[in-house]
Input
Amino acid sequence: MTGRHRNVPATAGAAMHALVAELYPLCRSITGNGVRQTLEILGKRLALDVHEVPSGTQVFDWMIPREWNIRDAYIADRDGRRVVDFRRSNLHVMSYSAPVRARMTLPELRPHLFTRPDWAEVVPYRTSYYKETWGFCLSERTLQQMREDEYDVVIDSTLEPGSLTYGEHYLPGATDDEVLISCHVCHPSLANDNLSAIAVAVTLAEALAARPSRRYSYRFLFIPGTIGSITWLARNEERVGRIKHGLILAGLGAGEGFTYKKSRRGDAEIDRAVGHVLRDAKGAVAVNDFSPYGYDERQFCSPGFNLPVGCLMKTPHGTYREYHTSADDVQFVTLAALTESLETLERIVDVLEHNVRYVNLSPKCEPQLGRRGLYRSLGGEMDAASRELAMLWVLNMSDGGPALLDIADRAALPFQTIQAAAAALANHGLLKPVTDLS
Amino acid sequence: MTGRHRNVPATAGAAMHALVAELYPLCRSITGNGVRQTLEILGKRLALDVHEVPSGTQVFDWMIPREWNIRDAYIADRDGRRVVDFRRSNLHVMSYSAPVRARMTLPELRPHLFTRPDWAEVVPYRTSYYKETWGFCLSERTLQQMREDEYDVVIDSTLEPGSLTYGEHYLPGATDDEVLISCHVCHPSLANDNLSAIAVAVTLAEALAARPSRRYSYRFLFIPGTIGSITWLARNEERVGRIKHGLILAGLGAGEGFTYKKSRRGDAEIDRAVGHVLRDAKGAVAVNDFSPYGYDERQFCSPGFNLPVGCLMKTPHGTYREYHTSADDVQFVTLAALTESLETLERIVDVLEHNVRYVNLSPKCEPQLGRRGLYRSLGGEMDAASRELAMLWVLNMSDGGPALLDIADRAALPFQTIQAAAAALANHGLLKPVTDLS
Amino acid sequence: MTGRHRNVPATAGAAMHALVAELYPLCRSITGNGVRQTLEILGKRLALDVHEVPSGTQVFDWMIPREWNIRDAYIADRDGRRVVDFRRSNLHVMSYSAPVRARMTLPELRPHLFTRPDWAEVVPYRTSYYKETWGFCLSERTLQQMREDEYDVVIDSTLEPGSLTYGEHYLPGATDDEVLISCHVCHPSLANDNLSAIAVAVTLAEALAARPSRRYSYRFLFIPGTIGSITWLARNEERVGRIKHGLILAGLGAGEGFTYKKSRRGDAEIDRAVGHVLRDAKGAVAVNDFSPYGYDERQFCSPGFNLPVGCLMKTPHGTYREYHTSADDVQFVTLAALTESLETLERIVDVLEHNVRYVNLSPKCEPQLGRRGLYRSLGGEMDAASRELAMLWVLNMSDGGPALLDIADRAALPFQTIQAAAAALANHGLLKPVTDLS
Output
């Protein structure tokens, strides 16, 4: 993609990176105070509706679990030295660990210790939301240094009736038709996964608010993965028909290029819009078919909903070394990647906002563009500039069927070139938009 | 394909090879006692309806020809030495040769002698069913050794009103919907073409009979090529609507890999089932579009019938050196090839038998597989095992449209993995089969 | 393509080349006497309706411009020596140049001089139809030799109310359904672009007239580019529904292979017919999708008409060095290229004329071709000759759906092989043409 998007200021990257750094220390999980604190910080930027859904609430086939909170946790040796210490990294405790206070030998403790034997330096990230157990995550190096000894094992956590918390930001547009942008907020100190996407989403919401007009309304969700999207869908079942396009955002702070996973429909407008924009993206681009494993598109694209929701990532889950380890830290996230993600999303939104159908009002033969100053009047040259070619494409295809994105794809020209050509032709009375926005 | 199919015993290959050897010496043609003797041997294994259709019977555009039988034939030199002798190989006489008893010079005899100049050692196979003539097939080497001399030329054959003989084996299932399996029985001492397919078909019929239940009924035809299938279709015109899937079997005893020729429809369920199974076959696999040249699929796929009948081969006609020569003998057929063919057919039948549609009874968001013990309860890992992935695919796609084969193809998982996942989900009340079997 | 088309005599190439040479000196433009003289010469060969449409006539969004004629033009130096002289080449004057008579310094004159800096020897071709101006085209070499001096600059042209002239030749067939063949006649001394196509079109018209029968009527247009086709469409709007297939011809006298640009429909019968014929053409063949930049297919394929009109070229505009320069002269055009173009068009017409649907009258199983002498009666061979295979394809596919071109494409056999097979089968009562020609 050449050049910065007009709506993205040069300072955007640094601001997003600062937000990632601010959110990083919080111990988030699918419920609990970490999510609340996160939403509180986001709420300084966006008008956020924060919802609390009580434990025990049935949401489709699932039930909101007890709320999990944690104050402290450690494994201390006979000398009282904390070999593993939650205060150093919240990754050290398996998320949703039940409270423990015991003295154990290493063999007794061992089944509760998780490492990455293939990468000795890092602490892995583990969860056990729906099976009550407890565990510690530590580096393989630390494990190797633990002597046969007795250890004080403490997890000062609570698993009690409470609620699941999520945030929602709504930005109204000219119509009730919605674009949904959703990102998971349930991971603790992992920067790329998914603080990067949270920072990009917040910044995108601000940029869209600053636009003079919006065709669509925009709904941003900051929700815990799986149970959060299921909860939101259960509580908004009657209103999901408004969602015309949607994107799950994940892993947008590192790596080269983009990976887009299409919606279950496969040919939804959002799929085509993202595909078009990514065609000109820097770095390797993959556009993959839907599969039922991944992020919250799994729920939005379940057969009972089948919403046009895809997933945009720079770093797909499980495909990069730092994934779900302590190496996914603030340094792993780059200003360049955050900026590129934001610009790409702005371009995708541009396509959605302006992808309308026009009808050629002079459909029999070409109109004489030259006498309107729309076309070079000097013939006999070999090349037609792409602006002129764009006008010819728009005139030729605008029979009420294809929309501008169809024309851009067919002409292999950037959407904004086609959009500018259509605007010029409409200004000269040669095109009329099809008023029905569907 | 990994591992032996559960229904195929280790001794199956040897038993099929023994049947090929037993049938090899008989002088089959499109009519006559060779076919009767062949069906008699098969009748010891299967309950076989043997049909006799009189010469002169009109079958669509064709007429059942006179019956051909042969007792002896030779070319003897002046010393009475049989230079070419039917008793050594029934390939030496062109099939359907009219009776001859004459003394001829070599130049007179020469137009009736057929060799393979490109392969001096072998005797070719030739027929002249519908134009009355006679001929001898011999090796080029033998021809080169024949002196300019007078020869006694004898073909002790009969071409007389009689009948065309074919065999039919019917194995009932839960419905009247039929799977048709047909192989030609008109070739004399050629082992791969088509005794191999006959042996595989007989063994498949026995294996299907041993299954505890069958969704489909199975009809096995042992018929002479072309005129046999035309005769069967003419006599069963009212009942062909029952044929839901069909396979012509030919050349299944030698060679690596498989060639499948699709039905005229091109996207029939049998075409997709065979394509799916062959994707995991050993060796080179070719799946070819229908063409109107080949085996009896020509008749089943004529436009007035257009049945979903394809053709499964290991060695397509005309593509291997031994084709239609004396080199296609019992040694050319291998136990491994016969076994692989049988196992592949069992797998194809498995797909047909179990390719049903399910409806997800919990279609809004994913059901919670973990609490049912269907899914790992421990999150945070990178890989989903394919059994779990298979369940997600089945749940996501089972909206009443796709059947299990569609899901297996889309998920790029083996049919049996998808089938097992669907069974597990149905057991837990998460899926319901669409009862309509169509 | 192997062998000469039966209708193309060996002398055709030389005759077409002579016509190109005869037309070459005339100074054509989009109006004026050059076009009239051109049509007069063509009128000796074909019965031509010559239309004159007055200046000022509205044709859709356009207006017929004033008529342009020119007697002389030059740039003479102080010594009266003509540095640039219209009498040497009519390319020296920008087409539609307004009259000029002035003495100018070189800096004053310079903005009106056009060269090809990248190819110093040639004179470029330029026009300014709709913006009144004037200009000279000259070689870069000549320009470099012009001294700082005063020059007499004369263009003795007229731009006055008159008319636009075009020619039309109609060749009736068995039905009113038309095949349209159109070529532009507005270029001055450029031989390949487009005298080559004019010569090929004239010769094709004569060859079609000599055919004993024609299924279609044929309409040949010899018109100025853009404004000519717009004028013709405006005057024939009610009748364009008769056009079932159409081709724009351009640049058919030089180069290897062919480029075909499909109609806007993309799958029109003309697109498939040309694609089929070009598959066997010599040299590189390109079949391109429609785009709204090019020749008069732009007008015929405007969305208000959307006629099935493609464009056949050997040398696409802008892709060869000589394009729109004085190097596109009579020597640039070859007999071989003209002949190959004519033969290819004859083959395309053959497909259109004979692309009918048949119904197999013996659709249940194959008919017995052998007893009708249509098929070899001797079995047991490996190869079926393509004539026999063609008959099997025609019988198998002729269920009322596919036409012969569909069958030829599916069978990957030449159309004429399929056509001959269908004719033989129809002669034997096995096929019946579907009478509806649609």
Observations:
- Chain A touches chain B at residues 59-62, 95, 124-131, 226, 229-230, 233-234, 237, 264, 291-293, 298-299, 301-306, 317-318, 323-324 (CB under 8 Å).
- Chain A has a mean pLDDT of 94.
- The first helix of chain A runs from residue 12 to 23.
- The radius of gyration of chain A is 26 Å.
